[in-house]
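Blinded run. Sample ID left blank on purpose so nobody reads anything into the name before looking at the predicted structure. Input follows.
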Amino acid sequence: MSPRTYLDYNATAPMRPQAADAMAAVLGETGNPSSVHAEGRRAREHVEAAREKVASLVNAKPRNVIFTSGGTEANMTALTPRVVAPEDTSGAHCFVSVIEHPSVLCGGRFEARDVSKIAVGAEGTIDVSGFAAQLQAYRSRNPNAPFMASVMLANNETGAIQPVAEIAELVHGFDGILHCDGVQAAGKIGIDMVSLGVDMLALSAHKMGGPQGVGALVLGAGAENFSGPLLRGGGQELRRRAGTENVAGIVGFGVAVEIAARDSGDFQRIGQLRDELERQTKSVSPDVVVFAEDAPRLANTSCFAVPGMKAETCVIGLDLEGVAVSAGSACSSGKVEHSNVLEAMGVDQGLAECAVRVSLGWKTQAGDIERFIAAWSPIHHRFQEQAQAA
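Blinded prediction complete.
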């Protein structure tokens, strides 16, 4: 049986062997990080070492790293009215971009009536001038009302990198705070919370070669007095997130972060592979449309469509040939659904239904690109034959 080619890193990245080994070692130990005996102190040392690594990756203070069960919990924890209005949440408002992950797009714990959407342009990046006008209108109607905005650093479907620093300056100019979903960007581009001006940042381990089921909400200067835990109970995570810490998962997270920081230059190589994949795909399919092609993009991500070639057919066909890709976000229910991201970009629904996402990562080699093209070519050829016969 020939080996499979995995090109769906934006859904989840293969775990780094070093992370798996470190987790296995910790799973062989006993100790609750909240216990004061030697076993508990050893578990606490593991957690705090990982906390320092995560903080270092994004230029934050270790005490402001809150470990969670993943990016979704981190986002939901951040998007709560009490973060911006600790005493009275009745007037709190939340702005979220239309290309966000579902855990942000829903507005978290804000009521639907208190959530407004931020538009994007045809390349899938935030319309900053439009958002400025939106905030100006909001502030004129609500001179003293507290608000937050949530804009992802890089989109999970198109890879488009957002102008977060510019947005942070805008939001702070209107006395708001900015939450940023950094899940897809972390480990793929450099993240400095201070220079970006981000007040809260969500991260997830499994997108960068760590385990699934662990992430973090990292607080910046504008949210250090955070008082809105999603989970209440014990005093874990400096009383910011109750529940016994997932020590092994946190250790794996820390190792993955450490490797990502060390190997940051590898994305130049990955970007060259992505560009070669797109070049060869265009050669096979001249009518292919690459979404957000002219926007700043993550080096590992390509989202494209051939008009008339349904994404579900492509994904299944590639899977049968041993190549794993996605029809967009992998966050629904295993089904191919319409993309709110492409819809927000003004992409025709028929074309959006043909969108395939290919995402590369640390294990990807030139041979993987060759195998993708070898599988894609006959699928496209059959489509052309069927179209001509129709």
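Unblinding after everyone has recorded impressions. The radius of gyration is 22 Å.
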